Amino acid sequence: xxxxxxxxxLHHFQMKRRCKDSNxxxxxxxxGFKLTFRSKYRAADIEIKKNSIVPGGLFEISKxxxxxxxxxxxxxxxxxxxxxxxxxxxxxxxxxxxxxxxxFPTERYLNVVKKGYKDCKLDKNYLNxxxxx
Length: 133
Known about the structure:
alpha+beta; Hypothetical upf0131 protein ytfp; five-stranded mixed beta sheet; globular
């Protein structure tokens, strides 16, 4: 199945450790959403926003990888699944259940996301903009 990563799962080494069958396919943009950070975990989330995009990584993952991600993302408590179509193919990602106010991410978490942006060759401007509430 196809999975869209936009936070710490962009980090290739971490993603491979978490989901051994995962393969990075390419970078893509999710249209009509914006990146933010929230919850007590200060983790990445996406929310609907017109004329906005969230850059991310498209991964191929196995059923067992999905189960591992479900545990990691605390599905369905913290995150729920969101599906969209990319060139006719169904893609799964996660979005937070409770849209609490913006919270600046921890330095450790942010560094993992930044490394992921490098790994996937994403435009850092989107990340920088998301850090301005």
